[in-house]
Amino acid sequence: MSSNGPDDVVLLAHGSGGVMSHELVAKRLLAYISNTTLDRLDDSAVLSCHGRIAFTTDSYVVSPLLFPGGDIGRIAVCGTINDLAVMGAQPLCLSLALIIEEGLPFRTLDVVMSSVHDTCAEAGIHVVTGDTKVVNRGKADGLFITTSGIGLVPGDLDISARLAQPGDRVLLSGTIAEHGIAIMSAREGLSFSTTITSDCAPLNGLVSTMLGAVPTGIHAMRDPTRGGLATTLNEIASQSDVGIVINEAAIPVRQEVRAAADMLGLDPLYVANEGKLVAVAAADHADALLKALHGHPLGQDATIIGEVVSDKPGKVIMRTRMGPTRLVQMIAGELLPRIC
Amino acid sequence: MSSNGPDDVVLLAHGSGGVMSHELVAKRLLAYISNTTLDRLDDSAVLSCHGRIAFTTDSYVVSPLLFPGGDIGRIAVCGTINDLAVMGAQPLCLSLALIIEEGLPFRTLDVVMSSVHDTCAEAGIHVVTGDTKVVNRGKADGLFITTSGIGLVPGDLDISARLAQPGDRVLLSGTIAEHGIAIMSAREGLSFSTTITSDCAPLNGLVSTMLGAVPTGIHAMRDPTRGGLATTLNEIASQSDVGIVINEAAIPVRQEVRAAADMLGLDPLYVANEGKLVAVAAADHADALLKALHGHPLGQDATIIGEVVSDKPGKVIMRTRMGPTRLVQMIAGELLPRIC
């Protein structure tokens, strides 16, 4: 940090609640994400809202803060938007809470806040309330971000990991494992012939397209982040008390991602995604849903990867490329710490 | 940490998203704060909501995690409830996001979660959605908590730090500086003849009582946390573009708190509170509001501490006990790091 003068980094005093805090908020945060609601700087944002709302929160502790295809700001906005979107909700607004380690270079904070702005614009949403804390050097790791989000759930839509039914088809919106492999490659300093970038993206537009095509046929939806596709499918199987049978050959993995995963000793099924979703839908709506997915830039590699069965409730079974089936278990311990 | 076996502390694998994460959530988190919405463990909670909502977030990085009169769990619930309450909103639900440092003893987590439960029960609110991340040893400081909250704003109520008007009276709900002094005493290992405890408390009940008595007379309200009463009054003066004149003699400070503040070299005006509020109300409603405050357990020491003037917009002036007036400035740098 010796190359950074006191003007170039966040200081403990920026978390005081006083003059320096107000300057940090005005010059380094509001400068990027200003809007009429946030700018009031009241203790809460006030919004109109009629109907059913979805409410979610996630903390982001990804390391490194900047990685190929994104940064902690982009992932913090995408992750919370995606948790709303997979419930079928249209994101309404976000909150943004920063925990900054003293010494964080302002140039890093600027990159992150610029990314928060850009990702919010991409998703058509605003940050309406926030908070900033600063902790002493060595008591955090650069920057942690917690976002919460509110979304509007249309009509009487009910999408939940509890609602998968035997006979349903399981759709995957695209290639898997890119986020986790991008982070691990950045962390290990690996280079491949092609740079693997995170798939980090806001999925609310994709979900709108899906619900436009199939307003009532989607039963369950989830974004396979920590623990990867395997863990998400296990959660749906367990919460819906159904079995899920998937075909290994139907799961799209980019060639360079598969090669990198092999090199790192990782199974792509367990590696985090940040711009993909799994949808479980009634069989007679599956083709229409696949067509809708293919019509959106974020769903071009979508496939039907399997189906829901009444056998083996709570279990996920994979038909392997070789022929036999095997049990796909939930991840047990820690595969990739601080991936999001 | 040598006295803690691997079964007694949080491990990195508890943040994996897999089996150990699910066990942590079920046994150590849901065990304390279970309710039908949260227990679904969907990506978002879904709630009905009609009207105007208030939305707020705060991260808590208080050190030490446990202190006289509270802990990080209690402060995280109270702080967010209070940010809703001072907007006149009735708290509807909370989110709870934990960032845990590997090695945190489960017994500490249990104390904190038990406190989250008790404080939610005291305020009549539930945690409906949450998230848990674990970071490596040395990359956080035990536990950071971010809570967000949604509240319902009754009718067309509009309370904001922008709406103080000349002629308004400034009310303070009770004695100041207890939270900050309790934390500093705990941190410095100071002991006084009486243990000074944090005033940390949910203020939604107090605000309901106030709005019941004076439905339309309250113009601005804020809880004086980081930066203390001085900073909060400066924020109201600045945002409303008015002057505020306060009487030093009218500001209640407990004798032992004043003594401890003297010993620590702190001015109670700048020391954080976590269970107090400042209300700026029309002069003809001030007595009714004071009476309402006195009728609630959390408002028994309430006083009228001053008034709003058109002179000196953006400034806070104090008539001292000695007679002359002085300018009360916003806190500049860092007085008490990690007080909340």
Topology (elements, then pairings):
The structure is a homodimer of 340-residue chains.
Chain A: H1 19-33, E1 45-60, E2 66-67, E3 70-71, H2 72-85, E4 90-101, H3 106-123, E5 127-135, E6 143-153, E7 169-172, H4 178-188, H5 204-213, E8 218-222, H6 228-240, E9 243-247, H7 255-264, E10 278-281, H8 286-294, E11 303-309, E12 316-319, E13 325-327
Parallel strand pairs in A: 4-5, 9-12
Antiparallel strand pairs in A: 1-6, 2-3, 4-6, 7-10, 7-11, 8-10, 9-11, 12-13
Helix pairs in contact in A: 1-3, 2-3, 4-7, 5-8
What can you see in these coordinates?
The structure is a homodimer of 340-residue chains. Chain A has helices at 19-33, 72-85, 106-123, 178-188, 204-213, 228-240, 255-264, 286-294, and strands at 45-60, 66-67, 70-71, 90-101, 127-135, 143-153, 169-172, 218-222, 243-247, 278-281, 303-309, 316-319, 325-327. In chain A, β2 and β3 (70-71) form a beta hairpin. The first copy, chain A, is 29% helix and 25% strand. The relative contact order of chain A is 0.16. The first copy, chain A, is an alpha+beta fold. The first copy, chain A, is globular, with a radius of gyration of 21 Å. Chain A has a 7-stranded mixed sheet. In chain A, strands 1-6-4-5 form a 4-stranded mixed sheet. The mean pLDDT of chain A is 94. Chain A has 2 domains: 12-153, 60s Ribosomal Protein L30, Chain: A; 169-327, Alpha-Beta Complex (Phosphoribosyl-aminoimidazole Synthetase, Chain A, domain 2), CATH 3.90.650. Chains A and B meet through α1, β1, α2, β4 and β5 of A and α1, β1, α2, β4 and β5 of B.
